[in-house]
Design brief:
The protein is an alpha+beta fold. The protein is 57% helix and 16% strand.
């Protein structure tokens, strides 16, 4: 195989990776994760791109100390971020799989 054909193949692979990554990003924007804290007293819905879509606080919780409410909100959001990160890693890995990239390079396109 000559160098020009190899370069053309590499360019085609790069274009395909770019298309797959853009598709994966759009997919992540539409996927949601759901997290909760305090046995469901605080619930968070977040997209795979880390956009909080909904925050729900049980009215009974509003009678408690503000510090406790803040801690539960933070815990629910942190759990949602962790889930969104896992979803993103999986989705992006799938977008670059089959392209002959080593696993260490697959995360470069997120």
């Amino acid at each position: 195989m000559n160098i020009q054909a190899l370069m053309q193949q590499a360019q085609n692979m790069q274009k395909q990776v770019e298309v797959n990554v853009e598709k994966a990003k759009k997919e992540l924007a539409n996927k949601e994760v759901h997290a909760e804290a305090g046995s469901g007293l605080v619930k968070v819905t977040m997209t795979g791109r880390h956009v909080v879509k909904r925050l729900s606080i049980d009215p009974s919780l509003l009678e408690d100390e503000p510090d406790m409410i803040e801690d539960l909100i933070a815990a629910a959001i942190n759990d949602a971020v962790r889930q969104a990160d896992e979803l993103s890693e999986t989705t992006m890995a799938n977008a670059t799989s089959g392209m002959g990239l080593p696993p260490s390079m697959q995360g470069l396109f997120g």
